[in-house]
């Protein structure tokens, strides 16, 4: 920014750029900081830049460089209330990456105006190098942060789950899912969802066969619904509701209906477990009984867990289990 520009124009131009930079840093590292604080910080950065410009010709060049970065780091330190050396390093690194990314983009845009000149092309290539380098650093940092967050969430909400039914026992790694709102009509409680391959440890041979048949039946019903949408309806003889319920109680294998994004009135087989024990670091958090929904789909692509615990698993009382 040249000093001969009017003060108001210079202030607004730098304020807008500083606000965008600080907003990006806030979003990535300090989501708890209020937007009002970012507005104040952008104003402070813009004013400090104008004051720094006023030192041109009055201070030696290296003094000006030291003063410039001192002002930037001081504002970041005060604005985000940084109290650790590690956080200072992260904040400054991220701020500089966004700064170079924005500066490179502006330089590239300005050089495009004179792209036909040799100097314009050279400037454009330099600006592109800055843009790609800054973008690459930010991308790698965000991927690292995403992985760290996923690991932290996994550690926080992952539990040891011990399940017993019909004399069979198995231990799984489960995760608490507050979004698992599937409720059994039989028990009136939430349903623990388990992968079919893992559920096999708890099933009798005959049950495995019947559940496999149910999965095939549900897949065929899904295809039939698609055909109905396309106008190719096939006449079906529906089973009386009482007969369906009688069969479920007789076999001990229930049909659970649920709806999720992209799936309406979907079905999965379910079986009752005599005991479900959830532990964290060896401590028993809950001991209950309930319905297990057996899913054909993988619950975790990374195979970090095999059971989805329902949102009410820690709110149950022993006396509320009706089966």
TrEMBL record:
InterPro entries: SpoIIGA
Single GO BP term: proteolysis
Name the UniProt record assigns to this protein: Sigma-E processing peptidase SpoIIGA
Keyword hit for Coiled coil: yes
Coiled-coil annotated spans: 208-239
Entry keywords, A to Z: Coiled coil, Membrane, Transmembrane, Transmembrane helix
Top-level taxon in the UniProt lineage: Bacteria
Regions crossing the membrane: 6-25, 37-55, 61-80, 92-111, 123-141
């Amino acid at each position: 920014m040249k000093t001969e520009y009017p003060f108001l124009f210079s202030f607004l131009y730098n304020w807008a750029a500083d606000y965008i930079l600080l907003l990006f840093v806030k979003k990535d590292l300090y989501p708890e900081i209020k937007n009002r604080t970012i507005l104040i910080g952008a104003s402070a950065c813009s004013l400090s830049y104008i004051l720094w410009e006023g030192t041109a010709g009055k201070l030696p060049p290296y003094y000006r460089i030291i003063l410039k970065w001192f002002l930037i780091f001081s504002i970041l330190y005060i604005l985000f209330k940084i109290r650790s050396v590690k956080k200072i390093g992260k904040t400054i690194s991220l701020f500089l990456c966004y700064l170079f990314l924005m500066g490179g983009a502006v330089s590239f845009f300005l050089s495009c105006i004179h792209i036909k000149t040799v100097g314009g092309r050279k400037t454009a290539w330099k600006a592109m190098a800055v843009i790609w380098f800054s973008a690459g650093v930010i991308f790698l940092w965000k991927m690292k942060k995403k992985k760290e967050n996923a690991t932290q969430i996994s550690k926080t909400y992952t539990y040891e789950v011990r399940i017993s039914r019909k004399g069979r026992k198995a231990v799984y790694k489960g995760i608490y899912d507050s979004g698992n709102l599937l409720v059994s009509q039989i028990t009136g409680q939430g349903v623990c969802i388990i992968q079919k391959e893992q559920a096999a440890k708890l099933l009798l041979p005959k049950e495995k066969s019947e559940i496999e048949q149910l999965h095939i039946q549900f897949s065929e019903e899904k295809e039939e619904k698609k055909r109905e949408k396309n106008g190719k309806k096939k006449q079906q003889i529906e089973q009386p509701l009482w007969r369906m319920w009688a069969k479920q109680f007789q076999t001990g294998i229930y049909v659970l209906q649920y709806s999720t994004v992209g799936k309406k009135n979907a079905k999965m087989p379910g079986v009752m477990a005599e005991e479900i024990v959830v532990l964290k670091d060896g401590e028993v958090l809950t001991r209950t009984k309930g319905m297990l929904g057996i899913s054909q789909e993988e619950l975790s692509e990374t195979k970090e867990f095999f059971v989805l615990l329902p949102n009410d698993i820690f709110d149950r009382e022993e006396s509320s289990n009706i089966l």
